[in-house]
Amino acid sequence: MRPPVIFAVVFSLLLLGCYSTQNLGGGGEAPLITDSKNFTMKEGWQENFRLTVGESVETHKISVTSVAPKAAMLKIDSKPVLLHITETSQVSLSGKTVFVTLNEVSEGYARFSISLSQPGTSQPPSGPSAKTQNGGKCSVDSDCQSSHCSNGYCCASGSCCLSDSNCSIGRCNTTTYACFTPTALSNGAPCNSNADCQSNHCNNSFCCASGKCCLSNSNCASGEVCNTTLFSCAQQGSGYTSLAAEQKANSTTNGTLMSRFSSIFDSARQCTGGNESYKQCVPNVATRTEKTSASVFRVTYSYSLTGTSCCPTSDILIITVDLSTNTTTTQRLDTSQTSTLADTMNLSLQSGCASALQYIAQVRGLACPS
Asked: Which domains does the chain have, with CATH numbers?
């Protein structure tokens, strides 16, 4: 065998022996720890160390079970010890207490120390102040102040995130750093995407049915105004429409009452039972809308009760709508009949045939004006 080949074989055997000694703890006497000792070990490696207990010296084994980017799992004899960088753990061995501190994790190596006394105040703090806050990266629950790690991030509970892309369902709340399923928002509500809105239309950071959405004129461009009923921008002069005013009026308590007036009577006339002559009472409802200024509309509801068994009355409700402020005011005319009928509808005609027939009887029982 040539000399260079012999040298290579011998050198390889020496290296293998050194690796085996470090990895398995063999070869030479284990170090005696009298104050502190530093260790640098990879996952799967183990070493022995000695401690003086009373008059005797005991040998203990330390091994590295796993190494993570910011943590390492050690085992001293049979006791598992999970440490994060700069964290110190207290371990009792045969009545003697040692302090194990993880100093650094680098390139798969865990660098830690075993001391007989608690590290001084110069040691970085351990416990919650050294752990990751919500929104920070983590590997295990114990990395986090909240003790909850999900998707690689810390949060209080649920599926943690840093952005919407981290959520398989829903979106990311960047305050709590947790995924959530948003509730569909009504028109005028702030939004981030179409999926946020009941109308499936998010524009200009607000929900609306279509077009450019707004909450006030300041959200619209020059020459546009915000229709605060529809929550959408329109050209000056066309932003406030009769249709929008009527929709606003119909949404009020009195407007809803008037718009339902005919259908209530129609349903009541279909009910079985009751006095047939009462069912001859027929309401006629009409709505008229007129514009009184750029944004103010006058919506007039008029109805009459006609028929062989009804007093021929005519009652009027006026709702003034200001679309620029999204406000309404109500005025009644011919209130001798209207107030009584409205109160009866609100109190007695919530639903069902019995209430409907009772209401018709109430209408029939009103004294006809002379």
From this structure: 34-119 (2.60.98.10), 131-181 (no CATH), 194-238 (no CATH), 243-365 (no CATH)
